[in-house]
C-alpha cells in the first residue's frame, strides 16, 4: 500500500466509524442534559373555576324555585398564586332567560389550602320566570403571571317560577247521585291529599257524596299557591238536613252548610234558637248522626218543660246528658216538614206565660221580650264513621260566629248565651280542615251568605 492509499484508508475509516460514534454519543448527551433542565422548570397553569354543586331549599322539587327559596352553589377555584380576586357580588351576575336580575346574594369562603379555594354562593328573592344562569366573567381570578379565569355562563338547571297556577273547575254528575269535581290547571301541580292527580300532573279530581262549598289551595312545582273554590251542588248521595227555630216561621229544610236561622242575623234581632230538628238521608245508616245540646232555660236546673210544637219534654242543661247522645231512634223523634227527624230543645223558651212541668212559675212578659233563653251549646258526631266528618258553627247575637267545631266537640260561647243561627255539613275527612278554615274566616262577624 502506497502512502496515498494509506491516507485515503485512514480518512475512510474515520468517516465510517469514528465520526458516527462521536455524533451519537454527543446527541445522547444533549438529550440527557435537556431532560435534566426541564425537570427544574415549574409550568404555571391558568387559574381554574369549577361549580361543584347546586342545591335548592324547594325540597322534593329541586329543579324549580320561586322567590321564597334559597339556592346555593359551591364553587372551587384552583390557583396558588392569586394576584387579583374579584369573586364577589360586584362581578358575579345572574340571568333568567338572558335578562339580568338582582337577587339577594351572599358569598363566603368556606375552605382553602395552598392552591384550592372553596366558595359558597347563596341567592334568594329570585324574581322573574325562566331558567336561572350564573355568569362568571373572564378575569374573575388572575394570577401573578397575568393569566385569568375564562368566561363561564353556568346553567343551574333550576327553573324560576313566580306565577301561581290558574285553573278551570267542573262538576260531573256520576252514578248513585255522586259528583266528580275536576280542577284542570295550566301547569304541573303537586299532590293534594285526598285528591287524585292525573298522570300529566295537571288535573285534580275527587268524588263527593254531598253538596259542599269551600276553597282549597293548589300548588305548582315551584311552590306558588292559588286558591280554588270547590263548589259541589248536585251530589245527593248523602245529605244532612236541619231546621233551626228562633221565632221565625220555618218553611223548609236547610242543608249542607246553609245558614239556618239567618233571618235573625239579617234583622239584627236578639231571637235565640229554641229548637233544632235534624236528620241525615241517603246511602248511609241514618242512625249514624248523633247530637246533644245544652239547653239554657228560664226555670233553671232540675226543671223540665214541654215543647209547644211537638209536646216533647226538654230540660235545663245537657240533653240527653253530658255523656250520651240523641239519634233518629231516640224518644225525641218527630215528624217535621214531612220527614222523620230528631229534636233538640223545644219551642217556647221565650214565650210569656209558659211554666215548667209541675210548677206554676210562668215566664213574665218583660223577660220573654228579652229572648234570653234557648240552646247555648251543641255537639254532633257521626258514630263509627271513618270516611266522613261533621262540621258545625253557631252564631251568637252580639258576639258573632264562633270558631267552627267538629266530630263531637261542643261549641258554645257560654251556657248562658244561646245562639240564634247554625250551619252544619258532612265532609270527607281529607277536606275537614279546609272547610273549618273557610268558615273560621267569619268568626266574630255578622256574616250572612
Give a short overview.
This protein has helices spanning 3-38, 262-267, 365-368, 432-439; strands spanning 48-56, 64-65, 71-78, 82-85, 93-96, 99-101, 104-112, 116-124, 130-136, 141-143, 152-160, 167-174, 178-185, 196-197, 203-208, 212-219, 225-232, 238-245, 254-255, 275-282, 289-296, 304-306, 313-315, 317-319, 333-336, 339-345, 374-382, 388-396, 400-401, 405-406, 411-412, 421-428. The protein is mainly β.
N- and C-termini, Cα separation = 139 Å
The number of domains: 3
| Poorly predicted parts | 14-42
- The helix content, as a percent range, equals 10-25%
Side by side, the strands of the main sheet go 2-11-9-5-6
Q: Give Rg in angstroms.
A: 42 Å
Beta strand %: 35-45%
Tally the helices: 4
The quaternary state of the protein chains shown equals single chain
Mean pLDDT across residues: 91
Largest sheet: 5 strands, mixed
Structural class: mainly beta
Shape: elongated
Per DSSP E runs of 2 or more residues, the count of β-strands stands at 32
Amino acid at each position: 500500500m502506497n502512502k496515498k492509499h494509506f491516507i485515503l484508508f485512514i480518512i475512510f475509516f474515520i468517516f465510517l466509524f469514528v465520526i458516527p460514534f462521536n455524533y451519537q454519543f454527543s446527541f445522547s448527551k444533549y438529550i440527557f442534559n435537556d431532560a435534566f433542565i426541564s425537570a427544574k422548570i415549574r409550568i404555571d397553569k391558568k387559574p381554574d373555576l369549577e361549580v361543584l354543586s347546586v342545591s335548592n331549599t324547594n325540597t322534593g322539587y329541586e329543579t324549580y324555585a320561586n322567590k321564597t327559596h334559597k339556592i346555593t352553589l359551591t364553587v372551587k377555584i384552583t390557583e396558588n398564586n392569586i394576584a387579583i380576586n374579584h369573586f364577589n357580588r360586584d362581578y358575579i351576575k345572574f340571568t333568567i332567560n338572558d335578562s339580568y336580575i338582582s337577587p339577594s346574594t351572599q358569598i363566603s369562603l368556606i375552605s382553602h389550602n395552598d392552591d384550592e379555594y372553596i366558595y359558597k354562593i347563596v341567592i334568594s328573592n329570585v324574581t322573574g320566570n325562566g331558567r336561572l344562569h350564573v355568569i362568571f366573567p373572564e378575569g374573575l381570578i388572575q394570577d401573578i403571571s397575568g393569566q385569568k379565569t375564562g368566561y363561564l355562563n353556568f346553567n343551574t338547571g333550576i327553573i324560576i317560577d313566580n306565577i301561581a297556577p290558574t285553573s278551570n273547575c267542573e262538576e260531573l254528575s256520576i252514578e248513585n247521585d255522586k259528583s266528580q269535581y275536576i280542577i284542570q290547571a295550566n301547569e304541573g301541580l303537586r299532590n293534594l291529599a285526598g285528591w287524585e292527580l292525573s298522570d300529566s300532573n295537571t288535573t285534580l279530581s275527587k268524588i263527593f257524596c254531598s253538596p259542599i262549598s269551600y276553597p282549597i289551595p293548589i300548588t305548582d312545582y315551584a311552590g306558588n299557591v292559588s286558591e280554588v273554590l270547590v263548589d259541589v251542588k248536585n251530589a245527593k248521595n248523602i245529605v244532612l238536613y236541619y231546621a233551626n227555630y228562633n221565632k221565625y216561621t220555618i218553611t223548609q229544610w236547610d242543608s249542607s252548610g246553609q245558614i239556618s236561622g239567618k233571618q235573625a242575623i239579617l234583622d239584627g234581632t236578639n231571637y235565640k234558637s229554641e229548637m233544632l230538628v235534624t236528620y241525615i238521608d241517603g246511602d248511609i245508616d241514618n242512625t249514624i248522626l248523633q247530637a246533644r245540646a245544652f239547653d239554657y232555660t228560664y226555670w233553671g236546673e232540675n226543671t223540665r218543660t214541654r215543647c209547644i210544637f211537638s209536646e216533647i219534654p226538654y230540660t235545663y242543661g245537657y240533653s240527653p246528658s253530658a255523656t250520651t247522645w240523641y239519634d233518629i231512634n231516640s224518644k225525641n223523634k218527630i215528624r217535621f216538614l214531612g220527614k222523620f227527624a230528631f229534636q233538640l230543645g223545644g219551642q217556647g223558651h221565650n214565650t210569656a206565660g209558659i211554666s215548667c212541668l209541675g210548677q206554676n212559675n210562668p215566664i213574665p212578659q218583660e223577660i220573654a221580650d228579652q229572648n234570653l233563653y234557648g240552646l247555648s251549646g251543641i255537639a254532633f258526631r257521626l258514630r263509627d264513621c271513618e270516611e266522613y266528618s261533621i262540621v258545625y258553627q253557631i252564631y251568637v247575637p252580639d258576639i258573632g260566629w264562633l270558631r267552627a267545631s267538629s266530630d263531637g266537640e261542643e261549641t258554645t260561647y257560654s251556657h248562658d248565651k244561646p245562639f240564634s243561627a247554625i250551619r252544619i255539613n258532612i265532609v270527607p275527612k281529607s277536606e275537614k280542615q279546609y272547610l273549618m278554615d273557610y268558615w273560621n274566616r267569619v268568626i266574630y262577624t255578622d256574616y250572612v251568605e
